[in-house]
Amino acid sequence: SVSLSGVSQNGCWGVTYTSRRVCALVGSTVDISCTYSHPSGHTVNTTFWHYGQPRDFEDLREEHQFAGRVEYVGNKLRIKDLKSSDSGEYRFRFITNLDQYSGSPGVILTVTDTQVTSSPATVSGGEEVILSCLTKCTLNNKYTYIWYKNGRQVTDGLTKDNKLYLDSVSNEELQQYSCAAEDQKESTALRNAAVILCVFFTLALIGILWYRRRMCTLSKTHRIEKGEEEVQYDSVHNNTAPSDFTQKSDADNQDIQYSSISFKTKHTSSVPTDEYPTDATETEAVHYATVRFK
């Protein structure tokens, strides 16, 4: 029996691969899985993957051509950004405290690109043409095919599986078509991630704009309140200033100067002299008082 960790202690040495042949596209990521078993009494110290060449037991992580592209997830081998040169046989190897073992034969990995073929191969124009998107190996059903003309995705024409049906095309136009195989799960995940990122950035932008608008409003309110305070201060100042002036004016007004002018008039008195034994002429003094205000 195989344990959850992929290790069985049934008394036999062995490695069981999930699939013996794997087809993958250039630039994609591939996972190769397995389970293994060993006799009881053994303790596994090291596990790794290597090329299926005789006496080549070097860990793939140490291979120069796989630098930064290989990782192990449990017993699973994961190779990223596949290249055509990655095609070959891969084996799982484990080392115990008493012995070591490699699962042979291993897994055959074929890395392929896409190629366009047409039927018929040449056309004279005005006839139906079927374009096929072919690979060197058979991809699983999770892939979908996308067609391009001069780098732009084709929206007209009927597509089915890996074929594109065109009503009329010339030989020159045939050279303008290309195709690509896309992982449906990965493309769906990428689209979902793109939607999530778009929503996130939209919300973030709205938040930033709201914050800036709020800060601008608060700044304007602060300036208005400050202006009102200045106006009130000026009003109080203007109201208090005249009182000083008034007090000064009052003080000035209190500085009153008095002066008098006397006019003397000589006339002959008609009163009997016996009543007034003084001189017949008497001077009457008329006093005019003037007041000057400063």
UniProtKB/TrEMBL annotation:
Top-level taxon in the UniProt lineage: Eukaryota
Record SMART domains: IG
Pfam families for this protein: Ig_2
Keywords: Membrane, Transmembrane, Transmembrane helix
Family matches, as InterPro entries: Ig-like_dom, Ig-like_dom_sf, Ig-like_fold, Ig_sub
Domain Ig-like: 105-196
Transmembrane segments: 193-211
PROSITE patterns in the cross-refs: IG_LIKE (PS50835)
Name assigned to this protein: Uncharacterized LOC109046678
Organism per entry: Cyprinus carpio
